[in-house]
Each structure stands twice: as C-alpha cells, then as structure tokens.
Amino acid sequence: MLATSVFAAYLVLVLTGKGAAFAVADSSVRSLGTALGFGQAEILAFLAERSDQMILAYIEFNQVWDTLFGLIYGVMYVVWVSVLFKPYSQKVGILNLLPFGQVIFDWVENFALSALSSQYLADGTVSSSIALLASTSSAIKWGFSLLVYVVIVVGIVMRIVGAVKRRSQR
Questions:
Q1: DSSP 8-state code for residue 24
Q2: How many angstroms separate the most distant Cα atoms in the chain?
Q3: What 3-state class would DSSP assign to 29?
C-alpha cells in the first residue's frame, strides 16, 4: 500500500508538474516516452514545436524526474508481485525481477531521448541510430509493462482461486 501511495503521489505531485514545463497545447504527443515507438521524423517534429527552454526542461525531465519515476514504479510492481505470489515464492520468485526489465529499458529510452534533445539543441539534427535505440527501448519497455500487468492479473486470479478453494473446504 505504501509503495502504491508513493507512486500515485509522485505521479500527481511531481511528474505531472515537471511534464508541464515542456507541454505544447494541442500537441499530438506530450512526451515521446509515452509512445509505443517513434521514428526520427516524429522526434524532430516533437522537438521542433518546442522552445530551447522547453527542450532543456524535457532533458531534465528524462534525466532526473522520469528516471526516479522508473525506480518508484519498479519497486511498486516488485512489491505487488511479491505479495501476490508469496504462497508460490519458491517456484516463481524470479518474477520479482520482471518489473526491473521495464525500468532498465525506460532508463535507456530516457537517456537516449536526452542525448537526441541535446544534439537537436546543438545542431538541429538527431542521430538516426540513437533515435532507433530510443524507439526500440520504448517498445521493449511497453512490452515489459504488458508482461508485468499480465503477471499481476494472473497473481490476483490465483489468489482469488486459492481463497475460494480454502473457503469451500471449510
């Protein structure tokens, strides 16, 4: 419960405010990290509609605030998986590490986006190879996210089934 409360508080009180510093009204993309994948053209379009100050805020967001957010949601998911699978921990304890796959690829994506943003500020271009790294990392991050949610749902179902079985045996 504490981990979930920290996650929600950080999301609402910190991350949302920090994201506002680079938000563009009526923009189709608030942050590249929320997209499943993106190419060099989408990155250039995202950066072109922002001022230098907004891009600097985006770099800080990726390097500091979203990086910390990854750690917070990673720990929260580890707690959820640990609690849900505690009765089965001898068999599936390795599932606790699954959320950190999402965190690692989120961090790779964040630092690649920061590098692209810095490059854009310096010379108005973005590296195609770093753009591919950022996009691929984003897609893998979302794949891990889906996998973590599936594991959590399976854990909830297993706990409900176990509780129903125990209740019917009484």
A1: -
A2: 72
A3: coil
How far is residue 59's CA from residue 128's CA, in Å, rounded to a whole number? Answer: 18
Distance CA 139, CA 53 (A): 28
Task: Round to whole Å and give the CA distance between 24 and 31.
Answer: 10
Query: Cα torsion for 83, 71, 43, 34, to the nearest 10°?
Result: 30
Chain centroid to Cα 145, Å, comes to 8
Judged against a pLDDT cut of 80, whether residue 136 lies above it is answered with yes
> Which one, of 51, 52, 67, lies nearest residue 18 by Cα?
67
Give the span between the Cα atoms of 25 and 40, in whole angstroms.
22
How far apart, in Å, are the Cα atoms of 64 and each of 68, 69, 111?
A: 6, 9, 10
This model's pTM is above 0.85: yes
Show the CA angle centred on residue 157, arms to residues 75 and 76, nearest 5°. 10
Residue type at 160 in one-letter notation: I
Cα 100 to Cα 120: distance, rounded to the nearest angstrom: 30
For the chain, what percentages of helix, strand and coil (3-state, to nearest 5) are there?
A: 85, 0, 15
| C-alpha triplet 97, 142, 26: angle, nearest 5° | 140
Q: Over the chain, what is the mean pLDDT? A: 93
